Amino acid sequence: MMYSEKVMDHFMHPRNVGEIEDADGVGQVGNPKCGDIMKMYLKIENNVIVDAKFKTFGCGAAVATSSIATELIKGKTIDEALKVTNKAVVEALDGLPPAKLHCSVLAEEAIAAAIADYKRRHGLDVENSECQGCCCKCETESEDSEE
Ligand code: FES
């Protein structure tokens, strides 16, 4: 089987699908490799992410990574959430096939975009957002797989 049980679980029963009407930050990104789209909604109180929801026109791997990513960032401060890399997300899913690693980038970038939106709305500095919607490094990163 190419996909871990965790991937299948989060694909079949994705957590946090939907939208937050009064979200404090909304981010949408597209995947240049496949054209899939991810939209992330964050509810933020005192710099802490208290709720996260997503919608996607993405594949199963994108659904699974976004599902677990929203679970990972809930309860974290926005700075902590920005440190949740797609590598951490993939590890939390017990791995993804190399050909699907670019899908996991979508969740990480959508979270970053939603946090950037939140910061913009609050007049905070937006750093590290130079490379939006770019996953050109996926293929080189996929070399260091564990198994
Ligand atoms: Fe597009 Fe996975 S194939 S996000």
UniProtKB/TrEMBL annotation:
Coiled-coil segments: none
CDD domains per record: IscU_like
First and last residue of the signal peptide: none
GO MF assignments: iron ion binding; iron-sulfur cluster binding
Protein name, UniProt field: NifU-like protein NifU
Gene Ontology biological process terms, A to Z: iron-sulfur cluster assembly
InterPro entries: NIF_FeS_clus_asmbl_NifU-like, NIF_FeS_clus_asmbl_NifU_N
Annotated NIF system FeS cluster assembly NifU N-terminal domain residues: 2-122
Top-level taxon: Bacteria
